[in-house]
Amino acid sequence: MRTLFKLFVVFCGAAFLVITFFSVGFVWDAFLSSSKKDADPVIVSIKPGSSVKMIATTLDEADLIVGDFGFRLYVRLTQTGLSFQPGEFTLYKGMNYASIVAVLTAITTDEVAITFPEGLTIEQMAERVDMAFGAGSGEEWLQSLRETKWSDIYVFLPSDELEGYLFPDTYRISRSSFPDELTYKLLTNFSEKFSPELRAEIFRQGKTIEEVVILASILEREVRSDEDRALVADLFWRRIAAGMALQADSTVHFIVGSDGSTVYTSDTDRDVDSPYNTYKYRGLPPGPISNPGLSAITAAIYPTPNAYWYFLTDANGAVHYAQTNEEQNANKYKFLR
User: Fold this and answer.
1) Residue 72 maps to which CATH number?
2) From CA 100, how far away is CA 103, in angstroms rounded?
3) Cα 173 from Cα 178, distance rounded (Å)
4) Using CA atoms, how far apart are residues 164 and 118, in angstroms rounded to an integer?
5) What is the mean pLDDT of residues 160-181?
6) Do residues 237 and 328 both lie within one domain?
7) Which of 17, 84, 248, 280 is the most exposed place for a label (fewest CB within 10 A)?
8) 88 with 129, same domain?
9) Are residues 159 and 219 both part of a single domain?
10) Alpha-carbon span 186 to 120, nearest angstrom
């Protein structure tokens, strides 16, 4: 009996030590630890709708916390799980949970969160800038694009025309640093997403970043799913190699200023004389027609081989493929009537 009692005491003592150790460690991580004065900043991106677990994983992968249990426990105890804001944040290694959460949940009058979906043109992005920063700010941003030689700053740019290279994402921008901070973040994000591995593969294929971005900008506005983008990418590259016109409706929509919501392009629009008109001119247009996301860019680099030469999209967004012009005409009669 005494032996059992001693074992019980030892067990309780060990459990007490473990609990004490965990409690001290949790309190330290939650409230007491602090970053060094010379710590390098770490930029983390929180996407809209991210769960606490997703945010904790992002912080763990950035070495800002060790594991996610303690951070998630702190968020649960402080009931701050619904207060996290989307965007990019500057944090420092060694920050305690309280400081990290304070940064990630803060809404300041100086900062504005703005989201650009995939496939917008620069003009459409300017409309969103107007809504986020106030009337006239969109034109102010466009003017700043025209006045700065961005190609001197970002070597991947083929010119100072930025259509295609402003990466769609959610950004937090300081009003006092607008509009230049917005452009810097858009272009820097593109540079980071366009990884060395992607650039090496483009070089291996004998293509250029510009060619890939142009095709990706067309894919972004032609079809919706990742699977269809990869199939259509292969189809388009083969049409170019064979000397065939791309005949992409999205390029005509770009010329006439359409939002691209129509299923097909009118014969009148197809007759518009512009180098962007891929019904009249073969090969790629002279520049991107939208700002594509990573999915469209990846599809342009890693297309899915197939035997199709034609495709169309019906009113529901479904894509129908054909190997011959006769099959394509039959699909038009069946799906576009």
Assistant:
1) 3.30.1490.480
2) 5
3) 7
4) 10
5) 92
6) yes
7) 17
8) no
9) no
10) 13
Which two structure tokens, joined as six digits, stand for 54?
């997703």
Residue 185's pLDDT is: 92
Judged by average pLDDT, the poorest of 21-35, 239-253, 273-287 is 21-35
Q: Clarify whether residues 321 and 215 are in a common domain.
A: yes
**What sign for the dihedral angle of Cα 104, 189, 257, 216?**
negative
Query: How many CB atoms lie under 10 A from the CB of residue 271?
Result: 11
The reported pLDDT for the residue numbered 112 is 86
Taking the CB of residue 309, how many other CB atoms lie within 10 A of it?
A: 17
Length of the chain: 337
Q: Are residues 127 and 226 in the same domain?
A: no
**Number of domains present in the structure of the chain:** 3
pLDDT confidence tier of residue 194, bands split at 50, 70 and 90: very high
Query: Token pair of 72, please?
Result: 């998630």
pLDDT of residue 37: 45
Q: Is the dihedral of CA 258, 298, 302, 281 positive or negative?
A: positive
Q: Are 100 and 30 in contact (CB under 8 A)?
A: no
Half-sphere exposure of 160 (CA within 13 A, CB side): 11
- Whether pLDDT at 325 is above 90: yes
**Can you give the residue range of the structural domain that contains 48?**
21-105
Q: Give dist(CA 102, CA 80) in Å, integer.
A: 9
Q: Are residues 261 and 232 in the same domain?
A: yes
Does one domain contain both 227 and 168?
no
Q: How far apart are CA 193 and CA 195, in angstroms?
A: 5
pLDDT at 261: 64
In a domain, 11, yes or no: no
Whether 262 and 277 share a structural domain: yes
Element (H, E) at 114: strand 111-115
pLDDT (0 to 100) of residue 130: 94
